[in-house]
Design brief:
This protein is an all-beta fold and about 120 residues long. About 0% of the residues lie in helices and about 55% in strands. The strands form two sheets. Strands 2, 4, 5, 6, 9, 10 and 11 form a seven-stranded mixed β-sheet that branches. It starts with a strand and ends with a strand.
């Protein structure tokens, strides 16, 4: 069974940093573009990162560009999201997922267990 499990969330103060991890099981992560999406309370799910399978190219949404950086470690079948300069607007449940460039923007599938990130003001 293919699974993606995100972890590493928590409570952090305004301006702080967190590093999220995502481990894949049941499939080789290096075969897929992998990204992150998040869902804040009362808001629609928002795609924020899509990182190519090779790791050579990454798309970042405007809301996180310049503050978040994704990396891949294929030896551990994992990806990591380094989040810096966090604000309360980043408070959400974060999920990792397979991703691709669709007609109307990046699309995501197979997201699994998410991790809660809460940023205090």
């Amino acid at each position: 069974q293919e699974r993606l499990v995100a972890s590493g969330g928590g409570l952090v103060q305004f301006g702080g940093s967190l590093r999220l991890s995502c481990v894949a099981s049941g499939f080789r992560l290096d075969y897929y573009a992998i990204g992150w999406l998040r869902q804040a309370p009362g808001k629609e799910r928002e795609g924020i990162v899509c990182h190519s399978s090779s790791g050579a190219n990454a798309w970042y949404g405007d809301s996180v560009k310049g503050r978040f950086a994704n990396s891949r470690d294929h030896s551990k079948n994992s990806v990591y999201l380094q989040m810096n300069s966090l604000t309360p607007e980043d408070t959400a449940i974060y999920y990792c997922a397979k991703c691709w460039a669709g007609v109307n923007g990046y699309e995501y599938e197979d997201w699994g267990q998410g991790t809660q990130v809460t940023v205090s003001s």
